[in-house]
Amino acid sequence: MNTEWTQIKVSDITDIAGLPGVRVEALPVFKDARGSLHELFRADEIPTGFQPLMACSSWSHPGVSRGPHQHVGQDDYFTFAGPSDFTVYLWDDRPGAAGAAKGWFINTGEQSPARIHVPRGVVHAYRNVGKTSGLVVTVTSLLFKGEGRRDPVDEIRHELNPHSPYQIPLI
After folding, report:
1. Fewer CB within 10 Å, N- or C-terminus of the chain?
2. What is the pTM of this model?
3. How far, in Å, CA of 40 to CA of 53, rounded?
């Protein structure tokens, strides 16, 4: 399947047209003589209805991709601030949506730090396109593996299915 791709630029707060509930925000960064402070999330700025329950971080080496996958009940709120750069890919798999026929991509990370809210049902992936390992902070609306880590992971992992229509392109 050929996907029609749309690039989204990181700028202020942007709700993505055609992709309800997905929001891209330029990450507030405050610099001074000591270094910088990055606001990962603020209760007065997170999307309405998003209730964070946990936060985690992951380091990805250059060229490494995570996803594509989606969640049935979990919303994610990612922060891409560096020290590397990433391309984020999004597709809408919710009922009545375009599915794999339409995709969006966002260049973010050290050169263009951002927070990205991805609601359940939106397939998402990211690739480290920089030259160094990069950090991604994820704040989620569900606990990983549930209370006490006893439940299955809320994830449909398209990256494990070579026939999935959700594939990271070579853009």
Report:
1. N
2. 0.94
3. 14
Query: Which positions ≥6 away from 154 have C-beta within 8 Å?
Result: 71, 72, 73, 74, 142
- Output the CATH code of domain 4-160: 2.60.120.10
Q: Tell me the per-residue pLDDT of 17-27, one tens digit each, with 9 for 90 and over.
A: 999 999 999 99
pLDDT in tens, 73-116: 999 999 999 999 999 999 999 999 999 999 999 999 999 999 99
111: Cα within 13 Å, side-chain hemisphere: 12
In contact, 122 and 20? CB cutoff 8 Å: no
Contact call for residues 63 and 163 (beta carbons, < 8 A) = no
Residue-level pLDDT at 1: 67
Integer Cα distance of 22 and 89 in angstroms: 12
Structural domain boundaries in the chain: 4-160
CA distance 100 to 117: 19
